[in-house]
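Human:
I keep going back and forth on a fold encoding question. Comparing notes only helps if you start from a blank page. Show me how you would write down a chain together with its backbone fold. Write it directly below this note and I will take it from there.

Assistant:
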Amino acid sequence: MVNISVIVGLVVGCIVAGSAGYFDGSSVKTAPVITFLWVHRFKISVYPPAILPMLAVYVSLAMESIGDVTASAEVSRVEVEGPEFESRIQGGVLADGLGGFLSALFTVTPLSTFAQNNGVIAITRCANRGAGRWCCFFLILFGILGKISGVFLSIPNPVLGGVTTFLFASVAVSGLRILAYIKFTRRERFILAAALSFGVGNLLVPTIFTHLFDRVRNPNRGLQGLFTSITIILSTPFLASGIVAFLLNAILPIDNDVAEAMVEEKLDPEDPN
């Protein structure tokens, strides 16, 4: 029962929601029997104002992928450091970038690593790669069979909200667990505080950067596109915090004592590597 606890929770929630009149089967009735991604075709074009925001999204998703793979490794009880872990990170980022490239060709936004999987692994204790491959197969199958997709679309929002709320809370716990591996110095504390300031600040005041360029009079089309791109980036919490953390981590020098410890660790004669 532990391995299927998420499915059991969805089924029980749907039963309760159906008995209360929240279940709507119209999505199943209107869904086609078979559907494909390439039903409609669009001309390939470039929208200049979207270049910078999409570039920022791709960079942010790469950073998210690193955290998600690390969290998945931690809840799966495998190593979170060393050559094997670094190879796993490289594969995760490469797969994430390839998926984002293909999603752009299908006229959808970049696909991110599914962070809720960390919560699913923690709850079900199932970290088998075979199970992940079967999940990929069923996702593709359900995307083609429209009626089955309609069944999932008909799940009431309160049921999905209850499940995803707990899963996202598990993701937050995994993030805190990853932060516990960091040897906090003044540098790391400053980077984390600055990144959280931008992220939490955007969440609390969503319009803080909306009127950033209002005093610029009569900008041309290219300049207006640049202003729009910057506003979108700064107004998106995870983009702003991720970019701030990335830039500060690249700019701020490492403390001398930490650098010396890293050098000593590399020169350790007892280290087989």
User: Anything to note?
Assistant: Residues 51-75 form the longest helix (25 residues).
